Amino acid sequence: MIIIQPAEKKIRTTISVPGSKSLTQRALIAAALADGRSRLIGPLESEDTEYSSGALAQMGIAMEKGDDWLVEGRGELSDRTGNPFFSVTTERPPVFSRPLLLLVGEDLSLTGTRGCMSGPLIH
Q1: Given this model, what pLDDT does residue 18 score?
Q2: Is the distance from CB of 73 to CB of 108 less than 8 angstroms?
Q3: Which Pfam families does the protein's record reference (predicted)?
Q4: What residues contact residue 25 under an 8 Å CB cut-off, 6+ apart?
Q5: Which residues lie below 8 Å from residue 37, measured CB to CB, with a gap of 6+?
Q6: CB < 8 Å & 24+ apart, contacts of 16-22
Q7: Which pLDDT score is estimated for 84?
Q8: How distant, in Å, are the alpha carbons of 24, 31, 76, 88 from that of 56?
Q9: Is 49 a residue whose pLDDT tops 70?
Q10: Segment holding 37, helix H or strand E
């Protein structure tokens, strides 16, 4: 058994928590749909967020990535290339990319990994 005793004096510190894939994807979408520049502080870089940001770039959203990500939202989304949108997931169909593609209001193609292409698809 471990006994935890209270500190004898106040502890003052800052704790940095790791980014979240889910929150990063939501923030990317919100920033893309906003007018102007948004700063994502401490986003999680992962395979999924790379594909999400790539799809947004394909829709004309400019982005600078560093410790923080700067996203230039245009208030709208449109397909700028005509290429299929690639999505990746290992567990289930992508939660964010399919509804996001519907906002484009154009006929689009979605392709991706086996997990992405399972389950109900947009037709």
Answers
A1: 82
A2: no
A3: EPSP_synthase
A4: 48, 49, 52, 95, 96
A5: 70, 71, 72, 73
A6: 16/42, 17/42, 18/44, 19/43, 19/44, 19/45, 20/44, 21/46, 21/48, 21/49
A7: 61
A8: 13, 10, 11, 14
A9: yes
A10: strand 35-41
Average pLDDT, the chain: 78
**Was domain 21-112 assigned CATH 3.65.10.10?**
yes
pTM above threshold 0.70: no
DSSP 65: E
Average pLDDT over residues 82-97: 55
Distance of alpha carbon 63 from alpha carbon 72, whole angstroms: 6
Bridge partner residues of 112 (DSSP): 87
| 57 contact partners, CB below 8 Å, separation of at least 6 | 63
**With 80 as the cut, is the pLDDT of residue 92 above it?**
no
Q: Residue 2: pLDDT above 50? A: yes
